[in-house]
């Protein structure tokens, strides 16, 4: 498994700062590692960068890599006069700037306001699969549970200087892309490839890199890539996402597909509900299809993957970390608490920088 995290680049005072090209030049001058991952890379906007871990099997190793990646990105940012903040959206009013790249400029030209406003930061989890058939089976199994992963990670209550009333407004902004959101079941690898071919044939998106499903088969690695989550304020919450995704993948391979899978239209409603209230309201129970307290639905997820967590030695840690999130709150809850204590936009971002790099 591995994790990719997107971060805002901000001034020391807290405002978004378009210095990604300078940060990336500093990163390129450092010694490279031949293993996949472990890089600081460009993202769509000059006000953000992305980090990635190397593939690993050990949860503690993954947590150490996530923390190291955050510290490295922040050190590189400081050389450009900036810091990094793990926030799903910027609380400030900002006109973000597309990275100087041919493909990014083509996306901006084709998608207009959707591209212009797309300064959002997510957390992407990769988990290895043997082939596309195995990957499609995992994707289909993940469908009703992606909403719970979003709720646990929600970390974007602000947008363009205003409080949105959402725990994850990033997911609402991201949902403007034509390929974003939940999917219907694929069935097998051939079914997945047919969908991708149909999307490309429509010429609506530039390439398969613009397949923005909540979860997809990676075009770069032999993995399922789960993209539904906001970037997590706390590094351990990002590792919780990865550990749960790995357990869901293991569970998928030993569980028969449901006779009547939940329709994509219904999943969109479940996901919207998770984005709206995160872990502070109700989520929809995948087993019952009705709302229940978020803590109960999160517990249902843990129970669903319990055997896989036990086999990996992850159960005790996951139960503790889930307890932390439910008691402390996700990133959105923490941001709103800082607001209640009197933090303005700058102070909120500065506190987020401290947590990001702790």
UniProtKB/TrEMBL annotation:
Reactions accelerated catalytically: L-cysteine + L-glutamate + ATP = gamma-L-glutamyl-L-cysteine + ADP + phosphate + H(+)
Taxonomic lineage: Bacteria, Bacillati, Actinomycetota, Actinomycetes, Micrococcales
GO biological process assignments: modified amino acid biosynthetic process
Name of protein: Putative glutamate--cysteine ligase 2
Enzyme nomenclature, EC number: 6.3.2.2
Pfam short name (any one): GCS2
Task performed by this protein: ATP-dependent carboxylate-amine ligase which exhibits weak glutamate--cysteine ligase activity.
Biased composition (Basic and acidic residues): 32-48
Enzyme class: ligase
Key word Transmembrane helix present: no
Gene Ontology molecular functions: ATP binding; glutamate-cysteine ligase activity
Stretches the record annotates as Disordered: 28-57
Keyword Zinc set for record: no
Family: Belongs to the glutamate--cysteine ligase type 2 family. YbdK subfamily.
Keywords: ATP-binding, Ligase, Nucleotide-binding
